[in-house]
Amino acid sequence: MTDGHRTVNTVSGTVHGMVVQAGTVVMSASGPAVPRQIRGPRRAFVNRESEFARLDAALDRLDDARPVVVAFTGLGGVGKTELVAQFAARSAAQFPGGQLYADLAAHRHLGGVDLGEVLGGFLRGFGLPYVPDGPAERAAAFRSATAAGHRVLVFLDNVEHAAEVRALLPATGLLVAAGRRRLPGLALDGAEVARLDPLSADAGSELVRGWLGPDRGTDAELARLVEFCGGLPLALNAAGFRLLDREDLRVEQVLTELTDKERRLSSLSNEEGAVGDVLDSVHRQLPEHTRAFYRLLGVGPGPLVSVELAEAVGVPRAADGLADLRSAHLVDDVAEDGPERRYRAHDLVRLHAAGAVREQPDRLELLARIVGYYRGRAALADRAIGDRFRLQEGPDAAALPGFGSGTDALEWLQSERANLLGAVRTAAEQRWHGEVWRLCESLWPLYHGRKHYGDWVESHLLGIEAARWDNRPDAVIRMRNQLGRAYYERAEYPLAAEQLAAATAVLAEVDEPRLAGVLWETDGLLCLADGRPERAVELFTLARQANEGDPHGEVVQSYNLAQALLAAGRAEEGLAVLGEATAVAGREGDAPMLMRLPLVEARAERALQRPAAAVGAAELSAARARELGQPKKEEAARVLLVELAEELGDPALADRNRARLRELRGR
Q1: Exposed, middle or buried by CB within 10 Å (0-12, 13-18, 19+), for 379?
Q2: Element spanning 155, H or E
């Protein structure tokens, strides 16, 4: 059943259309957290004084009335991200509101960006306990969080269209955009748009000399190395790693390798071939355990890797291999909290790694292990979050890392969101049908709790097709119902009804009554939204009957039924249903439902003009929501308490709950 899992709602929407990594946040005792989502700078950096001058000039133009926008375009690997990282470090004091980062490539669906999810990541960075669901509400909350006195630096990486920038402007501060495409639309908006060129021979030589010291390599050799690397810092970093890793290796030897045409993989385009040539050379010299980790970059379905993933799929000495790749700047740390650290490779490195493993015979076997890892851990996370009816068998808990709590599990799903969607896409491409729908079933608490609607719809369209190919009508019903709930939550009711009708058409092929129950439940929600509470009463009654023998399912459907009875003006009947459900939930220790049930009870008592009883029930709901870390449920209870306090003429009760609402909303 639905609504039976624990969620901690902190994040999510679409300009039309993969991950904001919520970075390090610095907590303040007197106000919102100060996000530090932009990664730290590297030590060596040269020849970007003109670009720094542009950014410094932008600082001089800052005021509290409007944001300033600067954009840099250029080849992949030219150093756009490092430029902004250096600037963020040296100008941190100019942005008391903090620094926000989003890689828009991690949020792109069919060419468009899920803007609501980007905004959700920003709001989570501020440590707000309450994040609205809708993109419009998130945009308004973001403007409030970045208003005068809270000036921020926003860095948008991999921008493709000016509209993506316009939709993510803070109220005040500086927005820096970076991308490979020219962005003339931003210039028309008054933004400063500049091209970031490769390093010159002198600047590149200065960078390498800073690593190697004065005695290794002649000036001419270093200039030739810069030329072979195309002046791209990404390629120079990789070449420099080899030289630093082996003090006996001469620059001349590296140049000889780079000019050996027969040994090149030529995995990248001509425009970026310098990076490919250097990576070919570096890859050949890596120890075997590091090459094994490098293969993950080219085979994995998503942009992030971790030691946990590498160990689970059989990479030897995973931590050592990762350390080598970090030393070579082939992967960067992703700034985030939590016990499991994740790392992102530049997309050119991933492209090269994919070329390096494309013809290897065990590539598909490795890919299957990776997809199996994400399917298994997603299933473990789903079970850690809460009890609900599932079709798939339980995962092998002994073979995979588990989770200490439902909150930890939900945060893992959130952090791995881009990889999980990539795993769904990859499994669909490979026709691993069972993996597709099982992943989708396990992603319900993430999508329902965090409102990643773009991911939700895309993955479940694939899940429906996979379940049909897998000859699992029960999974078809499950996938269509979960997709219908996404449409319902976006108020796209005709689309939700279409999914319910298609699921109902195959209901006769299954003998699990709870599948009929999930469809009646969603249909009942649609009837409530459509102003037909009596029909909703009938449907929720059927759904409760379908869940007989499943205590949690019975309680959930009783909760829904009570709300429908209340909407139909039958508050006394609703209270009777709630009393029975509360007894069952108490006996089963169903904490999430013991939080939800009193809020409906409070509304019913209010409808019966018993405000004192309503206050008691609402306060119980608010206290339990606070205990469970459910800010949105607590907010609903506090809002009702303020209204009840005004009806009772109790200013102390009203003030107390208004103060808590301000805490919940961050203002």
Answers
A1: buried
A2: strand 152-157
CA–CA separation, 222 and 206 (whole Å) = 9
Tokens 């029960």 map to which residue? 474
Over range 116-134, report the average pLDDT: 83
Token pair for 182: 């020219």
Counting Cα atoms < 13 Å in the Cβ hemisphere of 495 gives: 13
Per-residue model confidence as pLDDT tens digits over 579-605: 999 999 999 999 889 999 999 999 999
8 Å CB contact between 196 and 74 = yes
Q: Which residue has the tokens 């100019």?
A: 94
Tens digits of residue pLDDT in 246-280: 777 787 877 776 665 434 333 333 344 556 766 77
Q: Is residue 15 pLDDT above 60, yes or no? A: no
CA distance 309 to 183: 37
Tokens 């100008």, located at residue: 91
DSSP 231: T
Pairing verdict, β 343-345 and 67-73: unpaired
Residues 6+ apart with CB under 8 A from 83: 48, 51, 72, 196
How far is 522 from 556, CA to CA, in rounded Å? 12
Give the span between the Cα atoms of 551 and 205, in whole angstroms: 71
CA distance 267 to 265: 5
The verdict on pTM exceeding 0.90 is: no
Cα separation, 564 vs 574, in Å, equals: 8
pLDDT tens digits for range 492-531: 999 999 999 999 999 999 999 999 999 999 999 999 999 9
DSSP states along 182-216: --HHHHHTT-EEEE-PPPPHHHHHHHHHHHH-TTS
